[in-house]
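Hey, I was hoping to borrow your eyes for a little while. I've been puzzling over a protein and I'd love to understand its fold better. The fold is given in discrete form, as structure tokens running alongside the sequence. I'd be grateful if you could look everything over and explain what you see. No rush at all, and the record is pasted right below.
>
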Amino acid sequence: DYLMDTLEILRATHEISNDAFLEAGSIQGGLSLILNLLSQGISEAEANSQLLRLKERAKSLNGTYPELDTKIESRR
């Protein structure tokens, strides 16, 4: 998984803090959870609700670690 591998590299090379790693990992985990719930047949409304919560967490993460996205994308 690109995102998790990249986050691990950034943490190991001290380009991001452990806190940034953990918070970003929770976003990645949330996406996996939503995919699993969709495969189990949850309603579209519930999926959208989960996605909106995850989006708010991502906005918060971006506010706390504004350089994180650039660092992740630079590894592509």
